[in-house]
Amino acid sequence: MKKILILLLLLCAAANLQAESRYVTDQFKVTLRSGESSSHKIIRMLPSGYQLELISSNPDNGYSKVKTRDGTTGFILTRQLMSIPSARDRLVAAEAKLAELQEAPELLSAKLSKLQDAYKSLEGEHKRLQREKAALDDELQAIKRTAANAVRISNERNELRKQVATLTREAEELKQANRELGNDSAQRWFLIGGGVVVGGIILGLILPSLRVRKRKSSWGSL
């Protein structure tokens, strides 16, 4: 009930914030003219209680500039305007308000029931959104952990690549050293073989001369 009363007060306040209104006095009809004198053309006749928007007032000639609900602008005698609706219109509005208030309890009960249902629905939706948020938070944490692991794995892979490159370079260096050692060994054996051949040739040349000398010496002793 308090919420509805507050809503009515807000509606009244909003109505007061709109453009200032004036109402045609309690006469049968008044004239809306094109200018600020009785000699100007009559634009239309306005019935009693008709609502107008007040634009400006001229206290010197007693006319006010107004605008009708359909946007027509004209001039009317200021004394033919009232700040409040006519008594007849106020009576009709009061009777309508009374009828509305007489029906209000049942309407308020129905509105209250709808509001309670809407509140329960919103509460359920809020809980569902909270569950979804918790699930999304968990998923986000999992993604962060996965991303951290991916970075760590990438760093480890880079380290392994560096180690493989280092080992490959060392293996190539060892192969090159083995090839160099093999070449040195072959050269040594080649030199040894050459020396043996040369020695054999020298011995082949020396031994015959030694035999001839031995024979000569043996003959000389005879």
TrEMBL record:
Coiled-coil region: 84-187
PROSITE patterns xrefs: SH3B
Segments forming domain SH3b: 19-85
Domain of life: Bacteria
Key words of the record: Coiled coil, Membrane, Signal, Transmembrane, Transmembrane helix
Keyword Electron transport in record: no
One Pfam family here: SH3_3
Subcellular localization(s) per the UniProt record: Membrane
Signal sequence region: 1-19
Membrane-spanning segments: 189-207
InterPro entries per the UniProt record, alphabetical: SH3-like_bac-type, SH3_dom_pro
Gene Ontology CC annotations of this record: membrane
Membrane topology designation: Single-pass membrane protein
Keyword Cell wall biogenesis/degradation: no
Gene3D superfamilies (UniProt xref): SH3 Domains (2.30.30.40)
NCBIfam families: SH3_and_anchor (TIGR04211)
Name by which UniProt lists this protein: Membrane protein
Upper taxonomic lineage: Bacteria, Pseudomonadati, Pseudomonadota, Gammaproteobacteria, Chromatiales
